[in-house]
Design goal:
Elements (H helix, E strand, L loop, with lengths): L4 E3 L2 E4 L4 E6 L11 E6 L6 E6 L5 E3 L7 E6 L4 E6 L8 E9 L2 E2 L7 E6 L1
Length: 118
């Protein structure tokens, strides 16, 4: 069983929106983890774009601040990433993971592809 399952990606025009979901099936004490969304564009390193603490505090990469919103539903073991005003430079495979001091705690999922056309 995969540790995380990401979904919700797709092809969208610049200025459009997508909502990504990441479910952690069977994960105990999900509510205790800080969670993050990451992305990896072709030829680039994976980078963190948003983080949410167990208490609900959020932090974002500068380039997505004001456009992306991370949220969590502990009852569903799910973390979301609402992405608005998408830009071509947001094109990447998006992943989620539990994050503690920039250390990822779970295995990586398959990710979900986001492609933004100009």
């Amino acid at each position: 069983q995969a540790e995380v399952v990401e979904s919700g990606g797709g092809l969208v025009q610049a200025g459009g929106s997508l909502r990504l979901s990441c479910r952690a099936p069977g994960r105990s004490f999900f509510n205790r983890y800080g969670l993050a969304w990451y992305r990896q564009a072709p030829g680039q390193q994976r980078e963190q774009v948003a983080h949410i603490t167990s208490g609900g505090d959020t932090m974002y990469k500068d380039s997505v601040t004001g456009r992306f919103t991370i949220s969590r539903d502990n009852a569903q073991n799910t973390v979301y990433l609402q992405m608005n005003s998408l830009k071509p430079e947001d094109t990447a495979v998006y992943f989620c993971n539990a994050d503690l001091n920039n250390q990822q705690l779970w295995g990586w999922g398959q990710g979900t592809q986001v492609t933004v056309s100009s």
